[in-house]
Specification:
The protein is of the alpha/beta class. It folds into 2 domains: 3-214 and 510-538; 221-309 and 338-507, 4-Layer Sandwich (Nitrilase/N-carbamoyl-D-aminoacid amidohydrolase), CATH 3.60.110. The chain contains 16 helices and 14 strands. The strands form 2 sheets. Strands 1, 2, 3, 4, 5, 6, 7 and 14 form an 8-stranded mixed beta sheet that branches. Strands 8-9-10-11-12-13 form a 6-stranded mixed beta sheet, covered by helices on one side. The longest helix is centred in the first third of the chain and has 29 residues, at 80-108. It is globular, with a radius of gyration of 25 Å.
Length: 539
């Protein structure tokens, strides 16, 4: 194949991924998005290059940089430097993974080779959800978030079920096209394969539609109010508007819909910007205002985001993210992006956001990149690496109703969210500040992904964005009362509680863990064959 054709096919794959992606994408294109790239991979394999990995890498990189740039370009608005790092590194990592699959295919043959491409990819996605360079916005299974009625079976598989579906269909379609277009076999000889791939697409969709239409929520309604204050994160949030004025705006909006039957009042990430010291929070002006507000609504539970600090006392071991206190060598403290539940006559309970945005809220691998700490971007009133916690805290109301406080992009991590459910959460509350990206696909994609968490866990969701989209999501993934971008608003609904665990809640990303096992076996097999060939050549 001529280089120009390989370039065009690589570009086509990148454009297909982009055209398929939420929030306005046509998701069925995911079933053919890999096909042009697979033709490029096979063409390079057929050439018999000694270093075919190096030959293939630029084409693969071209595909995935197009996909990254055209679907997540909006990151540039909040972090130009961080966006460049995200685009280049994410593309490089996944390109290397794909090319490693090519190496295994070259050594072991087509069947184990295609299995390697799939399992290496899924193993990398699993790692990418867990390491400190995590930016999983383009996790393959997220591509069905707008076609959520097609993937109701995510309650059994999570997003990795979607990834496996996409890969299997792509590989079969590619093989059919190759036999017809390259090997010149008749189309009639491939009819059995065509029927098979159609069934492979249609049957999971039919199963999902049946699940969607037959799923009934148990009637267990809880009234809650969600507020979207719409405070400009660049020009008002941390500089142009006082903490008191911001909180007054939030509470006044809430009063428009709150009743004495309301159980939860949900506000966005960093709604309180005062900078509150944990253990002394009741001394702050913001807490005074909230306590007065609770006198009006004594049965209400307030769930809200704030910035907090914790001082390490004598004998406590500081965390790796602890900072010096005003130059004092003997004093350390941590800064947190925090969620809180506050109720009348009860102390505040805090949860510290623990999936931190690399380069914004956390410097990845500080022993390696610590010298860049001073360059960390200030998004939220606190710069530098934030502290976090190991366990998922569930906010329990006086009535023992449990809510999962997923802060910002924590809601993208499926298995991570199930930790809240296993700890007793009956609802998921997503509290976020999506205004950093302006009116771009970023906040709409983030909102769309919430559907997948609702399906995986069968939990109703209340979503509060400072600005962006606030809404309710039922247990089937249907969105209700979506607010408009850059508009102050308040919404109220009675949504159903659930305490049942789905299969996915119990077992998490088991598909990815199986992929990791297969990846390890395929890698060992590849290495063994390579060593044997080297030994034969030398012998």
């Amino acid at each position: 194949m001529k280089r120009i054709y390989s370039l065009l096919l690589s570009i086509l794959s990148g454009l297909l991924f982009t055209a398929a992606w939420p929030e306005n994408g046509f998701a069925p294109l995911l079933f053919v998005a890999f096909v042009p790239l697979l033709f490029v991979e096979q063409a390079i394999a057929d050439k018999g290059y000694k270093y075919s990995f190096i030959r293939l890498l630029p084409y693969v990189y071209l595909t995935f940089i197009i996909w990254n740039l055209l679907t997540t370009y909006w990151v540039w608005h909040s972090s130009p430097e961080g966006s460049v790092a995200a685009f280049t590194l994410n593309t490089l990592f996944i390109s290397i993974v794909f090319c490693l699959g090519h190496v295994t295919k070259k050594r072991l043959g087509s069947t184990p080779g295609y299995m390697a491409i799939v399992t290496y990819w899924m193993s990398y996605e699993y790692l990418h959800l867990r390491w400190e360079l995590s930016w999983p916005w383009l996790t393959l299974g997220n591509g069905f978030s707008e076609y959520y009625t097609w993937v109701q079976w995510y309650e059994y598989t999570g997003v990795f079920g979607g990834a496996a579906w996409i890969f299997i269909v792509n590989i079969i379609i590619y093989q059919i096209l190759r036999r017809v277009l390259v090997l010149k076999e008749s189309f009639a000889s491939q009819l059995k394969g065509v029927v098979g791939v159609v069934l492979l697409i249609v049957i999971p969709i039919i199963i999902s539609l049946v699940m969607y239409s037959s799923y009934e929520e148990e009637e267990n309604p809880v009234e809650m109010v969600v507020v979207q204050p719409n405070i400009d994160p660049y020009f008002e949030k941390f500089d142009g508007m006082t903490a008191k004025a911001q909180l007054e705006k939030l509470l006044d909006l809430g009063r428009q819909e709150l009743t004495q039957n309301s159980k939860f009042f949900v506000g966005p990430e960093t709604a309180l910007i005062e900078g509150i010291w944990e253990g002394r929070e009741e001394n702050s002006g913001s807490f005074g205002m909230l306590r007065e507000f609770l006198e009006e609504y004594p049965d209400l539970s307030i769930v809200i985001g704030l910035s907090t600090y914790k001082m390490y006392t004598d004998g406590e071991k500081p965390s790796p993210t602890a900072r010096k206190y005003r130059g004092r060598e003997d004093m350390r403290y941590d800064a947190y992006n925090t969620g809180m539940i506050l109720e009348k006559d009860r102390p505040a309970v805090f949860y510290h956001k623990s999936k931190l945005v690399p380069g914004v809220e956390k410097m990845p691998y500080p022993k390696i990149f610590g010298f860049l700490e001073k360059l960390a971007i200030d998004l939220g009133g606190i710069s530098g690496s934030l502290g976090m916690q190991d366990e998922r805290t569930v906010f329990f109301s006086k009535d023992s109703i449990g809510a999962a406080p997923a802060i910002c992009y924590e809601s993208i991590y499926g298995e991570y969210v199930t930790d809240y459910i296993r700890n007793g959460a009956n609802f998921i509350f997503i509290i976020t500040n999506d205004g950093w990206w302006y009116d771009t696909p970023g906040h709409r994609q983030h909102n769309s992904y919430a559907r997948l968490r609702a399906i995986e866990t069968r939990r109703s969701i209340a979503r509060s964005a400072n600005t962006g989209i606030s809404c309710f999501v039922n247990q089937r993934g249907d969105m209700q009362q979506q607010t408009k971008y850059w508009t102050p608003d308040v919404i109220k609904a009675s949504i159903n509680s659930n305490d049942e665990w789905t299969f996915y809640t119990r077992f998490g990303d088991y598909i990815a863990r199986v992929a990791i096992l297969l990846m390890a076996l395929l890698l060992l097999w590849t290495i063994a064959v390579s060593l044997n060939k080297t030994k034969s050549r030398l012998g």
